[in-house]
Amino acid sequence: MKHQQLTPFPDGFLWGASTSAYQVEGAWNEGGKGPSVIDKASFGDKITDFTVTSDHYHRFKQDVALFAELGLKTYRFSIAWSRLFPQGSGELNAEGVAFYQQLIDELRHHNIEPLVTLYHFDLPWALQEKGGWSDPATIEAFVHFARTAFELYGDRVNYWLTINEQNMMILKGDVIGTLPPGTPDPQKTLYQQNHHMMLAQAKAMIACHEMLPQAKIGPAPNISCVYPASARPEDVLAANNFTSIRNWLYLDLACFGHYNAVAWSFMREKGYLPTITEQEMEILRQGKPDFIAFNYYASATVGADLPHSDGEEAGGKLLDQQMAGIDTSVYVGVGNRWLKKNQFNWYIDPVGFRITARQIYERYRLPLIVTENGLGAFDELTADNKIHDDYRIAYLRDHIEQLQLAISDGVELFGYCPWSAIDLVSTHQGIRKRYGFIYVNRDEHDLKDLARFKKKSFSWYQRVIQTNGQNLADGIDY
Ligand code: BGP
Fold first, then answer.
1. Which of 160, 240, 412, 436 could be cross-linked to 217 through a Cys-Cys bond (beta carbons 3.0 to 4.6 Å apart)?
2. How many CB atoms lie within 10 A of CB 450?
3. Is the dihedral of CA 354, 355, 361, 362 positive or negative?
4. How far apart are the CA of 229 and the centre of ligand 1, in A?
5. Which one, of 224, 447, 220, 442, lies nearest residue 321 by Cα?
6. Which pLDDT tens digit goes with each residue over 145-177?
7. Is residue 229 predicted with pLDDT exceeding 60?
8. CA-to-CA distance for 101 and 91, rounded, in angstroms?
9. Which residue among 76, 223, 344, 372 has the greatest number of ligand 1 atoms within 8 angstroms of its CB, and so is best to mutate?
10. CA dihedral of 466, 471, 475, 478, whole degrees rounded to 10
11. Ligand 1, closest atom to CA 346?
């Protein structure tokens, strides 16, 4: 659809930026924090671990002051579950409670709306040792953690997110999931874990509505539109399959309280069906989100069978949460010659962003907020402490343009939080894969002084926010 006139970003639009606890805080064993699955994982020698990251735990005041200067209306961060409950449940850690209290107060002081993710990949290790998400006790531990967070911070937090990218944890269980190595029948285990996470989410949404009637809560999956490799009906069917398995399985359960039919038949066919009860399905029907948050980096393209001509490796590298993967009886991830790639081989597809937003909104008719979108790149710090990240500006500009088109198409969108507010450690590609508006002066293994420097994209995004998305021009004094 071509618009003669674009609909402006609504008043009060939540221009924001995102981080997650384990990627930005550091202080992995300080302030009474217990270990999480991330602290126990090994990442090889080439990249840094998550012990110090950006040291936000000690520098959050300085960071929030920079976020305020950037003009953020909202800041999306996650609570490290094992900072509140070092053992996952049981005793509450007063120092952890105080840390998020101070962070939230600091944000409020600067008129920045906190947008809080309850769980972003960092399951407490104590729970993992007892079976993690395979153990139904983890559901109750999560609900207790969520209730505690609502009680502690609910008077100052209006927007809550349940679980970050649950779909990626299940689809890429070997990369970012909570599956111990050597688990027998890994796929079946993951889909049972998925069911448990869904229940945990539904119970948390019910609790939130009971305890905090003024607050809003929603899921935060990674949603990408899926293109067929060609107009061949078999390819279209494969794209349909993957859309259900990758996207709608998770959002149908969260929003409609039922299993997506195609995803269910996929699980049945493969022998992955979870054990479920009618009582649990009733809980899933009762837990309703107020909005949908979604992360979007790139679209996916799949075909019915292995590609012949475009020279792309089918499936993509397993080690990457953006790649479709491969299951020849259902879909085969393929390349897309219409799209460019970034330095890390991720496709760049701004139009796919518009398509994705439309697809979600049309299907669920709930307000949307983008909780991640951004460009990972090897930024260079110049001798005068500058970072000329014009490529990031171009990426964000192109995506924000498409968001405005989505709004003009009728999509109800109330916020945009690019990844990331400040440089942090990538999920599995180290600190040199940077996303932030603020540079953190450190390397993979040399922590240097961890000083903060504003990138060119900082000045650019500042103006975007000041003009409520009207001025997206590249040129900016820096
Ligand atoms: C998402 C995660 C984030 C973040 C982002 C960028 O999947 O929710 O935590 O890591 O991807 O990915 P990466 O760090 O792999 O570049």
1. 160
2. 17
3. positive
4. 26
5. 224
6. 999 999 999 999 999 999 999 999 999 877 666
7. yes
8. 18
9. 372
10. 0
11. 16
